Amino acid sequence: MVNAGDMNGSGNLMDFLDEPFPDVGTYEDFHTIDWLREKSRDTDRHRKITSRSKESIWEFIKSLLDAWSGWVVMLLIGLKAGTLAGVIDLAVDWMTDLKEGVCLSAFWYSHEQCCWTSNETTFDDRDKCPQWQKWSELLVGQSEGASAYILNYFLYIMWALCFAFLAVSLVRVFAPYACGSGIPEIKTILSGFIIRGYLGKWTLLIKTVTLVLVVSSGLSLGKEGPLVHVACCCGNFFSSLFSKYSKNEGKRREVLSAAAAAGVSVAFGAPIGGVLFSLEEVSYYFPLKTLWRSFFAALVAAFTLRSINPFGNSRLVLFYVEYHTPWYMAELFPFILLGVFGGLWGTLFIRCNIAWCRRRKTTRLGKYPVLEVIAVTAITAIIAYPNPYTRRSTSELISELFNDCGALESSQLCDYINDPNMTRPVDDIPDRPAGPGVYTAMWQLALALVFKIVITIFTFGMKIPSGLFIPSMAVGAIAGRMVGIGVEQLAYHHHDWIIFRKWCRPGADCVTPGLYAMVGAAACLGGVTRMTVSLVVIMFELTGGLEYIVPLMAAAVTSKWVADAFGKEGIYEAHIHLNGYPFLDVKDEFTHRTLATDVMRPRRGEAPLSVLTQDSMTVEDVETLIKETDYNGFPVVVSKDSERLIGFAQRRELILAIKNARQRQDGVVSNSIVYFTEDPPELPPNSPHPLKLRRILNLSPFTVTDHTPMETVVDIFRKLGLRQCLVTRSGRLLGIITKKDVLRHMAQMANQDPESIMFN
């Protein structure tokens, strides 16, 4: 009998796996990462760098570079995300106006930019200037009349169809992952799931280009959600440049969490709201270090966007408002009613949209994504054009609804009947009776509200980039403005009522309809996404309305309570479940009294668990086991008789280890013994060289006993991000529970289809 010591130098051959080899520690597509393992690997890497830094000046410099690499990545993400957001904003403004006309002095100018540069523009007619011509003026020389209207109408539809067709074609041909909002997938990726290509360079390029096209087409969608996806693509690209992040999936997700914050920062001009959004809504693992870096990335992104100044108002946001009237306690009642409306709208939207998306996935409708986009775009453009509030871009609509009516406003919403004897300052205009323009605007807004509610259900989820923030805010802003005007007129005509008597005297400026629009927008966005803290912060950063936090909080909390009464899932969680992503939501509660033994595999009547033994299987045995099964890993036991647990080996690493051993070690053949112990087993003379695979063995796999409550097991999977845990009794292996088993069991307990969890 011989052992390793008698093999005259063969020890070096057998121990070649003590050095890392290519692709070890990586994961296959549609698999879940092992958070504990990634954390352990990063700790080992950091320990080595720290010990080496004391050896020489060069190693010390390398350790400093490693420490600063995280901040460098955040800087690059902020710069890139801010630049892309600025370019997208400018391009959307130009292409949206291109549907209605063109600037003769410089065709790349939007309507507003064109008239800014004109010397012939007056304040009263600031939207009209000789340099800007509608298509009817340019083509047939007429700006008024039925023929001019029909020509403009036709070209508006043609431009919209052209933009939408180009967008859906680019997505379908070059980057299928560029469709949708991206936030459900980002949430899933941040929870530890691998979706190769979802954050790739092609996806970044196509999503950026098509985002401009679809928003310009006039479809009922926004660019804010997709900008989070764009920022995460930037984060993934820059993290691949540094081995600290490219070789560790756990560290990469810290970068992506910060990138999500930068995305919201540039989408809304809300850096603090972006950090809170990443923390509350998107991230799965958010250590304090990531909080600081998210703040820095959001700051740089916001600064970059401010430098580009895409809105031309020297501010970060499009919806900046200045209200001159405080809110009163009696107004909390309509604010809470708007919160109720937001919660009901959120519930209605989620249920209808998920039903439509499920129908799209399960019927022939899903086979014709281009046709679907063209049909929805045509319907949207045909219905939207006659109504001035749906014809304009949704962002401009929200901006107008948020605005207070000053003395210089020319909007229909500000067509009040003025008192000719009024001598008040410009900023303190009293409540006045509504004029004909306000009544016209009210029924146009009512039609716009119905249209937006219906068309958004069918638009979100198509095979194009589509955000939900702006359409949801538009629905709430329209409803809020209408309620605000109603309360304002009620206060004016019935100021002697007890609810108005104390705070609304005749001739006073009591009610601000724009504030109601802002509160309604927050309520509807909260009802759809179920955000609370981050939503309120985003809204006050978005508008600059710092003193209106309490109304926003009241509406956000009410909308969440009402929506949660009908179902706990927000729109993003609903789409995660629809797509079958393996996402363990921290918000879900598991209250059933099942045990680990009820969920583990193998069950009674099933084949025994596939295991590896520590020193009695050959290379051929291991390869046969891998070939005959599709498991992601195998427990390693002392022997099949005792089944005492030693550790756990991943399938992918076994395959790579054996492949590398065959290439680099001459003595390894099919009947070579594979061993996972420190010392090789005793072998007969002339035996082929054994293969040591201890390096790829996880010696501390997470284990639970068979009587552990599933409530505890689910909590462990959530908080530690496990891929699997082994079930033992007195050290003897009984079975295994994977993340997929947990999700399947939770679905079963909730009376849902357990096979809806599609991925490993």
Automatic annotation (TrEMBL):
It is found in: Endosome membrane; Membrane. The keyword Membrane applies. GO terms for molecular function: antiporter activity; ATP binding; voltage-gated chloride channel activity. Keywords: Antiport, ATP-binding, CBS domain, Chloride, Endosome, Ion transport, Membrane, Nucleotide-binding, Repeat, Transmembrane, Transmembrane helix, Transport. CDD domains: CBS_pair_voltage-gated_CLC_euk_bac, ClC_3_like. The chain crosses the membrane at residues 68-92, 153-175, 195-215, 227-243, 255-279, 332-356, 368-385, 441-461, 468-487, 515-540. The keyword Ubl conjugation does not apply. GO terms for cellular component: early endosome; endosome membrane; Golgi apparatus; plasma membrane; synaptic vesicle. SUPFAM superfamilies: CBS-domain pair, Clc chloride channel. It is a multi-pass membrane protein. Pfam families: CBS (PF00571), Voltage_CLC (PF00654). It comes from the Eukaryota. Belongs to the chloride channel (TC 2.A.49) family. This is Chloride channel protein. It comes from Caloenas nicobarica. The gene is Clcn4.
